[in-house]
Design brief:
Oligomer: single chain
Number of helices: 0
Helix content: under 10%
Distance between the termini: 33 Å
Structural class: mainly beta
Shape: globular
Order of helices and strands: EEEEEEEEEEEE
Largest sheet: 5 strands, mixed
Strand content: 35-45%
Number of strands: 12
Radius of gyration: 16 Å
């Protein structure tokens, strides 16, 4: 199965392109453009994925969804990308873009107030790329999700 570069931005845009589109370069090289950003957008997620993987997107307000990587079409390196999550003032920007490889993996999120939340990956349903998403992380008033991570199922025993 082919490997792809998957980039996600704070404003809910994603791009997927084959790894072989990136040429090998030296340490002193500036590199190449991975995604064309609009305005003040910024990259918040980067991973090497396959079409069998899923991506979990979570916003500052705790809204999120899982999407199959295969739902994203292949693009060219440096493309503008496609919408992967509708971001607005209510949802806040995307703060976590996590690759899910194993249905038994657990998830961990941290909030601005220092709260750590651990949850089962299976509790979050898979949606189509165009879907809105659901409340993934319940937050106290005036708190925000700041980051998240995947805990490998092998480490979750016990």
């Amino acid at each position: 199965h082919a490997d792809f570069i998957f980039l996600t931005t704070r404003k809910g845009i994603a791009v997927k392109y084959p790894v072989h589109e990136l040429r090998v370069s030296g340490r002193s090289s500036m590199g190449v453009k991975g995604i064309k950003l609009k305005g003040d957008d910024e990259v918040v997620g980067f991973d090497i994925v396959t079409n069998e993987d899923e991506i979990l997107l979570v916003t500052e307000s705790g809204i999120g969804k899982k999407v199959k990587i295969s739902d994203f079409r292949n693009m060219k390196r440096g493309a503008v990308g496609v919408r992967c999550l509708n971001v607005n003032d209510k949802t806040g920007g995307v703060v976590a873009s996590l690759t899910i490889r194993n249905p038994n993996d657990n998830l961990m999120f941290m909030t601005k107030s220092g709260q750590v939340i651990r949850m089962h990956n299976k509790k979050i349903p898979i949606y189509k790329r165009q879907a809105r998403g659901v409340m993934v992380v319940k937050l106290k008033e005036n708190d925000k999700v700041i980051t998240g991570g995947v805990i490998d199922a092998k480490l979750s025993q016990g």
